[in-house]
Write a structure and sequence with these properties.
By secondary structure, the protein is of the alpha/beta class. It has six helices and twelve strands. Strands 5-4-3-6-7-12-11 form a seven-stranded mixed beta sheet, sandwiched between helices. Strands 1, 2, 8, 9 and 10 form a five-stranded antiparallel beta sheet that branches. A hairpin with a 2-residue loop joins strand 1 (21-25) and strand 2 (28-33). The two termini are 34 Å apart. Bound molecules: S-adenosylmethionine.
Length: 235
C-alpha cells in the first residue's frame, strides 16, 4: 500500500502543497475529491453523521478514522473517551497532529481484548468490509469489540439508484459482481496510483439480515438525501 489517501491527508494537515485526490470505481468515471472534506467541521457534516455523533456515548472506537474529524469532535466537544484507528500511518500522524490523544495505526480486524460502548464507522462504513462474502466475519469482529449494551453506528448507501431501469421497470445490474454494491476503488494522488481496493456499499435490508444472522439487532436510525442511511447495531 502506497498510502496515497493518508499522504493527501497529511499533506493537507502540514500544508505541504495538498492536491485533490482522484477516485475511480467500477461503476463511475474518474472524479476529484477535495481532501479538505476529510477535515470537515461538525456544521459541515452530513445530517446522518451529525446524528451518529449525537448518539455516541461512553468509550468510543472510531474505525477508519481518516483525518479524525469525528473523533476530534467527540473528544473535544462531547468530552468522550475516544480511540481512533486507521490502517494508514500518514492519516494517524495527521490525527495526532490535530490533537487526538488515542490515535493508532491498526487494522480493526486485529483488535483483541478491548471493549467499547460505541463503535463508529462513517463515510460509507460498510466500505471497509470490502465484499459481501466477508460480511459475517466483519460483523462478528465488530460484535466482539462491543460492551453488552454497546452500539455500532454505521452508514452506507443503497446503490440501486445508479442502475438504469428497463421499459418494464426492472433494473439492469451488471452481473460481473455477485452483489451490485461491490465495487473496486482506485485512488490516485500527485501522479501515483494505489492498487485497487474492494469497497462495499450495502442496502439496509441486506445489512439488517446479515446482522440478525450474526446475533445483532439492527435499527434504521435515519436516512439521508442520497440514498444513504445510518444504522445502529446492538447485541
Ligand atoms: C472513506 S475513509 C473514511 C474516513 C473517516 N471515517 C471520515 O468519515 O472522514 C475510510 C478509512 O478507512 C481506513 N481503513 C480501511 N480499512 C481499514 C481497516 N481494516 N481498519 C482500519 N481502518 C481501515 C482507510 O485507511 C480510510 O482512512
Amino acid at each position: 500500500m502506497k498510502d496515497l489517501f493518508g499522504k493527501a491527508i497529511l499533506d493537507y494537515q502540514t500544508n505541504n502543497q495538498p492536491e485533490n485526490l482522484l477516485t475511480e470505481t467500477t461503476i463511475s468515471e474518474e472524479d476529484e475529491m477535495d481532501v479538505s472534506y476529510l477535515f470537515r467541521k461538525y456544521s459541515d457534516m452530513p445530517q446522518i453523521e451529525q446524528r451518529a455523533l449525537s448518539l455516541a456515548r461512553g468509550k468510543v472506537l472510531d474505525i477508519g478514522c481518516g483525518a479524525g474529524s469525528h473523533s476530534l469532535y467527540l473528544q473535544n466537544e462531547a468530552k468522550l473517551d475516544v480511540t481512533a484507528v486507521d490502517i494508514s500511518t500518514n492519516a494517524i500522524t495527521a490525527c495526532t497532529l490535530r490533537g487526538i490523544q488515542k490515535a493508532r495505526v491498526q487494522d480493526f480486524m486485529t483488535i483483541k481484548d478491548e471493549k467499547f460502548d460505541t463503535i463508529l464507522l462513517l463515510m460509507n462504513g460498510t466500505g471497509i468490509c470490502g465484499q459481501l462474502k466477508k460480511l459475517p466475519q466483519f460483523l462478528q469482529q465488530l460484535k466482539s469489540l462491543l460492551n453488552p449494551d454497546g452500539q455500532i453506528l454505521i452508514d452506507s448507501s443503497d446503490l440501486i439508484y445508479m442502475f438504469d431501469e428497463d421499459e418494464d421497470g426492472g433494473k439492469w445490474i451488471p452481473s460481473k459482481n455477485e452483489y451490485y454494491g461491490e465495487l473496486s476503488f482506485k485512488i490516485s494522488y500527485k501522479g501515483e496510483t494505489e492498487e485497487s481496493l474492494d469497497w462495499l456499499y450495502l442496502d439496509y435490508n441486506t445489512l439488517q439480515n446479515a446482522a440478525f444472522d450474526n446475533g445483532l439487532k439492527s435499527e434504521l436510525v435515519t436516512e439521508g438525501e442520497n440514498y444513504d442511511y445510518l444504522a445502529k447495531l446492538s447485541i
